Amino acid sequence: MFGPRGDSILAHGYQGAFHHWTYNQDKANWQHVVTVSGHFDSVEDMVWDRRGGNFLLSCSLDETVRLHAPWVSTTREVLWYEIARPQIHGYELNCIAMVNRYQYTSGGNEKVVRVFDAPDNFVENFCNLCAIDMQKEKTSQDSKTRPVGASVPALGLSNKAIFTGGVLDMMADLEIKPGENEQYADNVFTNVTLTAPPSEEHLLQNTLWPEVQKLYGHGYEIFALDCDPDGKILASACKATRD
């Protein structure tokens, strides 16, 4: 729908995500505007980060994990926004637990616990948006071995780490040329520096966290996860075989 003066457009996508554009008179084009976002199905679990409560992770039956944090700006009121979507999955997610500042685990109806690490691009954008000293964050984690981002292979459920500028750069290094009729997955990571909360397209494409491990053992749907304060012991529970 158009705004009353015809200089703004509000739309929503297939999964309920909002898109907002305004017309820039000086540049004579339409520009994306920060808008609200969030889960479109029941939220099953939430957890704060392990140091200072600077961000909040939530998982949902909409098969996503979303990261919410305050956008700190000198020109506007401090408000919380979705700044990353670390996991876009193929199963409903029921529980989540933080292991350390930049690592979390999730469990759902697929009976597998998955472990995710924050990529370098997320740490940079998190510091930019939340006015956090990036040097302290860099020294607290081994950023030399941290991947820059992640992407999901076609027909896959695991977020694969990317250590270069993106999938297309990796293809160029390997001298792989796309065919005329080939279409690569929409989730092709691009290293982007954010100055405002990301749009829906950016959340889907550039804010995934790499999956670093799978934990097996349960025979039924997982419904609870927890980690000790030192991040050394992880406990999980699944549905029983009988009532």
From TrEMBL:
Q: May I have one GO cellular component term?
A: elongator holoenzyme complex
Of which family is this protein a member?
Answer: Belongs to the WD repeat ELP2 family.
Question: Which SUPFAM superfamilies does the annotation name?
Answer: WD40 repeat-like
- Coiled-coil annotated spans: none
Superkingdom, taxonomy of origin: Eukaryota
Chief location of this protein within or outside the cell: cytoplasm
Task: Name where it's found.
Answer: Cytoplasm; Nucleus
Q: Under which name does UniProt file this protein?
A: Elongator complex protein 2
Q: In which pathway does it act?
A: tRNA modification; 5-methoxycarbonylmethyl-2-thiouridine-tRNA biosynthesis
Which InterPro entries does this entry report, sorted A to Z? Elp2 (IPR037289), WD40/YVTN_repeat-like_dom_sf (IPR015943), WD40_repeat_dom_sf (IPR036322), WD40_rpt (IPR001680)
Task: Tell me the GO BP annotations in alphabetical order.
Answer: tRNA wobble uridine modification
- Which keywords fit this entry according to its UniProt record? Cytoplasm, Nucleus, Repeat, tRNA processing, WD repeat
Q: Which PANTHER family match?
A: ELONGATOR COMPLEX PROTEIN 2
